[in-house]
Amino acid sequence: MTEADPEVFKWTWLLLPVIAAAIGWGTNHLAVRMLFHPRKERRILGLRVQGVFPKRQQALAEKLGQLVARELFSMEDVRKELQSEAFVTHAAKSIEAKLDEFLQTYLMETLPMVSKFLGSDTVAKVKHALVECLAKAVPELGEMFMSHLEKNMDVETVVREKVAAFSSDKLEEMLLGIMKREFRFIEGVGAVLGFVIGLVQLGILWLM
């Protein structure tokens, strides 16, 4: 053994934490990648391999559909909002704005003689009466709207079909957009743990 060999051997030992950190990062990076890849099932060394999300997309779609329909979205909540005083007030303001637009455009410009015959006070009274009448009908229209939705729209089915129809690229893009930092953190934790394990191994070898 030459004189340089112990020095090389020492540096090889000192590289153990770095190598372990690289292995830890690499394994976690591979694990994250395998959440989405391979997109289609492949046989590797006789084993069937497919990304977790592409493989379980249908099950994910079903669970999300159930979650949204039963826990996150309620037709009853929508019904209450459509019948709330705040919504009725907002609807009345929108109706009044549309009536103003109609009266200004149709009566004042298209039929100026009618507007002169009626007079501005009469037009204002007619508008006020129409706004009150239509505003009172808003809750009834909201109830009719909700009844139609309940009969013709199944939230669970809509969500399930939408998620199931996502392309693998779209699903990956969506999940990475939400959890990109978390995935990087997982990779970083793998590197840190690998480095610590390498230090422990180095300490054990040093004491031997």
What are the SSEs and their pairings?
Elements: H1 4-14, H2 16-33, E1 42-44, E2 47-49, H3 52-55, H4 57-72, H5 75-82, H6 85-110, H7 112-118, H8 120-152, H9 155-164, H10 168-207
Antiparallel strand pairs: 1-2
Helix pairs in contact: 2-10, 4-9, 5-8, 6-7, 6-8
Structural overview:
The longest helix is centred in the last third of the chain and has 40 residues, at 168-207. This protein has ten helices and two strands. α4 runs antiparallel to α9 (155-164) and α6 (85-110) crosses α8. It has a domain at 56-167. 83% of the residues lie in helices and 3% in strands. It has helices at residues 4-14, 16-33, 52-55, 57-72, 75-82, 85-110, 112-118, 120-152, 155-164, 168-207, and strands at residues 42-44, 47-49. A hairpin with a 2-residue loop joins β1 and β2 (47-49). The mean pLDDT is 81. The chain has a two-stranded antiparallel sheet. It has 208 residues and is mostly helical.
Short description:
With 208 residues, the protein is mainly alpha-helical. The protein has helices spanning 4-14, 16-33, 52-55, 57-72, 75-82, 85-110, 112-118, 120-152, 155-164, 168-207; strands at 42-44, 47-49. The chain has a domain at 56-167.
Keywords:
about 210 residues, mainly alpha, about 85% helix, two-stranded antiparallel sheet, 2 strands
